[in-house]
Write a structure and sequence with these properties.
Strand content of chain C: 15-25%
Shape of chain C: globular
Distance between the termini of chain A: 67 Å
Oligomer: heterotrimer
CATH topology of the largest domain in chain C: Chloramphenicol Acetyltransferase
CATH architecture of chain A: 3-Layer(aba) Sandwich
Strand order of the largest sheet of chain A: 1-2-3-7-6
Largest sheet of chain A: 5 strands, parallel
CATH topology of chain A: Rossmann fold
Number of domains of chain C: 3
Radius of gyration of chain A: 20 Å
Radius of gyration of chain C: 24 Å
Number of strands of chain C: 18
Chains: A alpha/beta, B alpha/beta, C alpha+beta
Chain lengths: 336, 339, 415
């Protein structure tokens, strides 16, 4: 391959091995199937509370996490199942948490909105819009002070871009040149309020200018686009050049949460986005570039389905937490 | 002077409350490279109340970090840093500004460990210069400790003496959970004997500062000093007060309070924060629910701040929080069966 | 001293006036004093049915207070009172919560077992020492029983010895059962705290105190003459007249001062002898009887005693006396002369050691020194004494001295 040909090749193919790309496809399927099974469990009354599904945003989650090293860290949001899977979480423990079981990631104390996987570098989803942004900056501060070389990727939604915490965090991350990458997943609506109605700048990425950091808006449903943008930001962060803001344009197929009646958008709009399924898009891209065959792709999908079924079985069979342990971990138990 | 006392004296130094805090931070910065200080104007300025002083010269801007005026973001960064290996000590310029950071303190710092099933802890220390008496009016004089004490997951301490200011701060830095330290601004200048070097005062342990038989005064922070002065006055009219310095309001040391109430049969709670829904209500209810209830021979009395914002005028400002004379007269009335 | 009627002295408010709870509404005159009636509620005064000068039985409505904006409809009967939030103005009762008299609790509490005010520690000790709190009078604010009260009570019970553990005023006498058996019609009424205290203390007195009585006839003419002279002398400057009772209080005080051995209380292992003279005077109330005390009476002149007594009576009837004001120590005076009683026995009010029962002064012929009939006003008195501290001779000396003072009353002025 000539230098010229390599430059014209899609980014993903130059940067990742076929196995890595196949794993990316597997993760996208896992996310989709996790969300679908979660929704199904909810409908059948197996779990309570609420959930925020990321169906339609799988590529954004997986593509953003691709450039990260295993030791790098992320902070996530209430719509965080995808981020969790993308950072390598065990879906059995995710389902167990979802079912409120002692074997879950948070031992049944956190639920859907607080799944974290510290060992894999996932510092946790967050129930507060923009709540995780300063925490990500703090983690980046630790990386810099303790010289661990870690980069922190901070996921948040379009709704968070109007919270004070977003602005304060970007400002301080920039002032101190911290190794953090801000990924704003713009799925067009903060609950029901569209970005057009809530945000005066054309792109949320334009906010970066206010903090003198790079800002770029990319198609989050295009694996190459999102992963390339994040990769560039991660390289920059790791080099000690400070933070970046990436706006990942995407769309959630489902409502905000289980109480959503979809009154703020049209069926047509949803259908258009559903017809541009990001997983199909990535799969076609991989088949087209001979990374895998259509059959191999189908196998990956069916294996993912099996993984989901096993995970649900594990979750169902797991024990509930003991009521007597209700106060455990409010504080750290210390030897007397 | 015997040998023991001589050794004791050599180990001690007289220092002010703010010097004691600075000494504690100095020791922590020296001993543990994970410790950092964060806050507004804590660097070359030395802190609004000159508590951090010249620590920046000794440890550099990287470890004594001036933050922009961004309480919410700053607090959140401290939470994130604590979560990932640092030991931040975050100074609010005034405790009143903590209201800007409540999200991070209440929803994040306090809950992360529990929400994540005990997988992590948040070893964070926050310092809150609090209280009235400086003529700074309603937005710079509050005592909001009960707000934070209401939140499971936080520890809230209120040192009253230079020694405890140092010992409790060093204990807080060692503690794996978030510890909120309320420092009364009028105490910064008071002096006392403090042990040299590293030591900790236990969090969650109250101390009887004066023994007595007729009435128990449970006080916090500056009110410990006011209660002790009141106790001197009351002794002249034959009333013997037991004064308890609560030191920590969460977790609260109920047993010390219960034993004292069982002994004296009368309970008065003295605190500067607004009386309504405050620490006094908690202590009163705690005693009322405990076996000490049967030992009460008089109604429980709360002496707390008035139900108004702290006013600017100094006469009004003084009238807004309990003063020594108020404590003397109310306690005398209680002991004399007039209440 | 009984009060079943009141005279409307004056109205401070009239028909249609807005009034606030606690405002002075009217003055009522009794045989002893004029008292102010305050508004039991806030609203507008309507249907004032008693004019100034009218004599009205206690309990009769003399006006109605309607809530602001309430339809002013003539109240027809008693049920309307409770159905509506209108307040009835009643000349004899002050609906204000009674602050300082512990035995006059709000009626809702009186029938309840837990209507007793006591500190947790007092309750705890009472349970431990098996003391019935209902029998104690609290020394704390609002009559609250404290640890000290229980401890004192406990010592008293111990001092009384083994023959008596507790005094049970609440024991059934069988009256109701008998009435049912006989098919009589009756109503049951709740026992208020004051009645409970009276019952308990007097059972205790009768059971524990070895009473003996000394009778004497006393000539009253000189005293009455002196009273008339005093009243005509002060008539122009003062509206309040000296009563026979005021003079009797003064005479008792003077006698006790002269016989200090009788100014005592029995206290188990000790005898308490008081430095000053404190005279309790029985005052009948609607709900029972109280004994307000004229303190240091030997140091007070008759006019002072008279004024003080008038004030004590008013406040006793209004339920406004503090406990200390009716806590006697050694001596009580009980006068039923105004009811036409000739002579009677009274029961000593512990820890006092004497009570003087005074009957009506009656004109009768008695022989003079030459054996000829002479008209005189004779008053019968009976002195009941606690034999534990007062022997017969001491009682007799007291009574002799008392008779001398009454019959030569000018000594009262001279002193």
């Amino acid at each position: 391959m000539t230098q010229q040909e390599r430059q014209n090749e899609p980014f993903a193919l130059t940067r990742y091995t076929p196995d890595q790309l196949k794993d990316a496809l597997r993760k996208m399927h896992l996310i989709r199937k996790f969300e679908t099974a979660a929704e199904d469990s909810y409908m059948r009354g197996l779990i309570h509370g609420t959930m925020h599904l990321s169906i339609g945003q799988e590529c954004s989650a997986v593509g953003s996490c691709m450039p990260l090293a295993a030791s790098d860290q992320i902070t996530s949001t209430h719509r965080g199942h995808g981020h969790c899977v993308a950072k390598g979480a065990d879906i059995s423990r995710m389902f167990a948490e979802f079912f409120g079981k002692e074997t879950g990631y948070c031992k049944g104390r956190g639920g859907s909105m607080h799944i974290a996987d510290i060992a894999k570098g996932n510092l946790g989803a967050n129930g507060i819009v923009a709540g995780g942004i300063p925490i990500a900056v703090g983690a980046a501060l630790s990386s810099k002070r303790l010289k661990t070389g870690k980069v922190v990727l901070c996921f948040f939604g379009d709704g968070a871009n109007n919270e004070g915490a977003f602005h304060e965090s970007l400002n301080m991350a920039s002032v101190w040149d911290l190794p953090v990458v801000f990924v704003c997943e713009n799925n067009k609506y903060g609950m029901s309020t569209s970005v057009e109605r809530s945000t005066p700048v054309k792109n949320i990425a334009d906010r970066a200018a206010a903090y003198a950091i790079p800002g770029v808006a990319v198609d989050g449903n295009d694996f190459n686009a999102i992963t390339e943008a994040v990769d560039r930001a991660v390289v920059r962060a790791r080099a000690g050049q400070g933070p970046s803001l990436i706006e990942s344009l995407t769309y959630r197929w489902r409502g905000h949460s289980k109480s959503d009646r979809n009154r703020y958008r049209t069926k047509e709009e949803i259908n258009i986005w559903m017809s541009r399924d990001p997983i199909d898009r990535f799969r076609s891209f991989l088949v087209e570039h001979a990374v895998l065959t259509a059959d191999e792709a189908s196998t990956i999908e069916s294996k993912a389905q099996k993984e989901i079924e096993d995970a649900i079985a594990f979750a169902k069979d797991s024990p509930d937490p003991q009521v007597s342990d209700i106060g455990r971990d409010v504080y750290t138990a210390r030897p007397q | 002077m015997n040998t023991h006392a001589a050794t004791g004296t050599r180990d001690m130094a007289e220092m002010s409350y703010s010097e004691a805090i600075r000494d504690a931070m100095d020791i922590a910065l020296e001993n543990d490279s994970r410790v950092i200080l964060m806050g507004e104007d804590i660097g070359v300025y030395g802190g609004a109340f000159q508590v951090t002083g010249d620590l920046v010269q000794k440890y550099g801007k990287e470890r004594v970090m001036d933050t922009p005026i961004s309480e919410l973001g700053g607090a959140g960064i401290a939470v994130g840093a604590a979560l990932t290996g640092l030991r931040p000590i975050y100074e609010f310029q005034f405790s009143d500004f903590a209201t800007l950071a409540m999200e991070q303190i209440v929803n994040q710092a306090a809950k992360i460990r529990y929400m994540l099933g005990g997988e992590v802890s948040v070893p964070l220390v926050m310092r809150f210069p609090a209280g009235s008496g400086t003529g700074a009016a309603a937005q710079h004089s509050q005592s909001l400790e009960a707000w934070l004490a209401h939140v499971p997951g936080l520890k809230v301490v209120m040192p009253a003496t230079p020694s405890d200011a140092k010992g409790l701060l060093l204990a807080a830095i060692e503690d794996p959970d978030p510890v909120m330290i309320f420092e009364h601004k009028l105490l910064y200048k008071i002096k006392g004997m403090v042990r040299r070097g590293f030591f900790t005062s236990p969090i969650g342990v109250a101390e009887i500062q004066r023994s007595g038989t007729d009435v128990t005064l449970v006080a916090t922070s500056i009110m410990v000093h006011k209660s002790l002065s009141a106790a001197e006055e009351l002794e002249k009219i034959g009333i013997s007060c037991e004064v308890i310095d609560l030191k920590t309001i969460r977790p609260i040391d109920c047993e010390t309070v219960f034993s004292s109430v069982k002994k004296t049969s009368r309970l008065v709670c003295v605190y500067e924060a607004v009386k309504t829904f405050g620490i006094g209500a908690e202590i009163s209810a705690m005693v009322a629910e405990s076996p000490a209830f049967d030992f009460l021979d008089a109604p429980i009395l709360r002496l707390g701040g008035a139900d108004n914002p702290i006013p600017y005028n100094s006469k009004l400002e003084r009238a807004s929080v309990p003063q020594v004379d108020d404590i003397v007269s109310r306690v005398a009335d209680l002991v004399h069966g007039k209440i | 001293m009984d009060m079943s009627f009141g005279t409307i002295a004056s109205w401070h408010r009239s028909e249609g006036d807005s009034v606030e709870k606690g405002d002075a509404l009217l003055d009522i005159e009794t045989d002893k004093a004029t008292m102010e009636v305050t508004s039991p509620g806030t609203g507008v005064l309507h249907f004032v049915s008693a004019k100034e000068g009218d004599v009205v039985p206690i309990g009769q409505a003399i006006g109605w207070i309607f809530l602001e904006g309430e339809d002013v409809v003539a109240p027809v009967g008693a049920p309307a009172i409770s159905a509506s939030r209108r307040e009835k103005v009643d000349p004899g009762s002050d609906a204000e919560p009674i602050e300082s008299a512990p035995i006059a609790e709000p009626s809702a509490d009186c029938s309840q077992k837990n209507g007793i005010r006591a500190t947790p520690l007092a309750r705890h000790l009472a349970r431990k020492l098996k003391i019935d709190l209902a029998q104690l009078v609290g020394s704390g604010p609002h009559g609250r029983i404290t640890r000290t009260d229980v401890e004192i009570a406990s010592r008293q019970f111990i001092n009384k010895g083994a023959q008596q553990q507790t005094i049970d005023a609440g024991r059934k006498t069988g009256a109701e059962r008998m009435a049912q058996e006989l098919g009589l019609t009756y109503k049951t009424m709740p026992v208020n705290n004051m009645r409970k205290v009276i019952a308990t203390r007097l059972i205790e007195s009768r059971a524990c105190i070895p009473h003996f009585d000394l009778d004497a006839d006393v000539e009253l003419d000189a005293l009455m003459a002196m009273r008339n002279q005093m009243n005509s002398a002060i008539d122009k400057t003062c509206t309040r007249k000296i009563s026979i009772n005021d003079l009797l209080i003064s005479a008792c005080a003077m006698t006790l001062q002269a016989v200090p051995d009788a100014n005592v209380s029995w206290d188990g292992d000790t005898i308490i002898r008081y430095d000053d003279v404190h005279i309790s005077v029985a005052v009948a109330l609607n709900e029972g009887v109280l004994t307000p005390v004229v303190r240091d009476a030997q140091r007070k002149d008759i006019q002072t005693i008279s004024a003080e007594m008038a004030d004590l009576i008013i406040r006793a009837k209004a339920g406004k006396l503090s406990r200390k004001e009716y806590q006697g120590v050694s001596f009580s005076l009980s006068n039923l002369g105004m009811f036409g009683v000739k002579s009677f026995s009274a029961i000593i009010n512990p820890p006092e050691s004497m009570i003087l029962a005074v009957g009506q002064g009656i004109q009768q012929f008695i022989p003079d020194h030459e054996g000829r009939p002479r008209l005189a006003t004779i008053m019968h008195v009976r002195l009941s004494c606690d034999h534990r501290v007062i022997d017969g001779a001491l009682g007799a000396i007291w009574l002799k001295k008392f008779k001398e003072v009454i019959e030569k009353p000018t000594v009262m002025i001279l002193n």
